Amino acid sequence: MHNYSTIFQQLSALIPRWEFEQAVAAFQGNRYVKSFKCRSWFIANLYAQISGKDSLREIETALKTQKSKWYHLGLSNISRSTLAHANQHRHYGICESLFYRFLARCRDLTPRHKFKFQNPLFALDASVIDLCLSLFPWAEFRQKKGAVKLHCLLDYRGEIPNFLLLTEGRRHECRVAKEAQLPLSSDSIICFDKGYLDFEWLKSLDSRRIFFVTRAKNNAAYLVVGQQEIKSGKGVLADQTIRLTSAETALKYPGKLRLVTFYDREEKRTYRFLTNNFKLAASTIAEIYRARWKIEIFFKWIKQNLKIKTFLGTSKNAVLTQIWTAMIYYLLLTYLKYQTKYAYSLLEFSRMVQAALFERIQLIDLLSLRTLERQKIKPPLAQTLLF
Fold this sequence. Notes:
By secondary structure, the protein is an alpha+beta fold. Helix content is 40%, strand content 19%.
């Protein structure tokens, strides 16, 4: 019998130890800590994320049943009170910093986007994560509702988040976009919906030679100063060069803009797209915006398949720690998927990992199992005691 490490150990080993220790040192995570070090704290939270545990008691009980396999994880003991205290007091910035450090590794493996042009392509959006206001009073969103908001800059290359920011739920997306330093290089193309339509911010993007694609508002006041030739058969109804004529918007964005009117035959609906890119075909501008659905799918996937809707603690630090741990796990899955050229979906991969978490097999062998063999990997059933 091969003495392989467990799947969980192989996953945790992918987290660069030196970079993790640097993140811990930056936030003095191990200061005054005697036994339950930050590495054990992170491993316990990662286990809860992968296994889908809903409570601290569940984590404690489940890990104790696997105590014989702890030696390679660095855990010495686990109790729900110790984990609860750590989640409340160990700074969530450790996990946030680790996410960005690991993100650099993932970028080297991601495939390019499907478009013919070489410009980096991104989608920007935000999603609300609902919280119970009575349990999370620090997250006041509305009169009887709590929430935090996850802002994401999604890279079309590999469909991984290139930038994440967690704010209070009432913080407006456009305000965050204006204040945050988005990691965008010149010649990048960023796509977003009408909620980000602030012409002062659009002008700042244009001054940095960053292209944007968004939807035009129906009441926009403008003057047509030019028109491009339209190729038939691609749904483009008009391709115009415009200037804003409203006194306020013209002051914020005095330059020229491109307005593309497009008819979507599938939805039987007409769209108007606003951009500062005059080189790409009008149909390509429409396709760029159509591909914005990827960020919507990203938000839907993480809410349905990661533990970011029910939380192990009620403090702000505990909530943010859990969300950042979830995003690290998402990077782990995508990193392995692209590194091994795994042909199946990320959802199937996550279910396989969850089912075989403490199995002693190689990760590469798990990924290469045939369909019938994958179905045999199931979590052990609890024994029924007969009296």
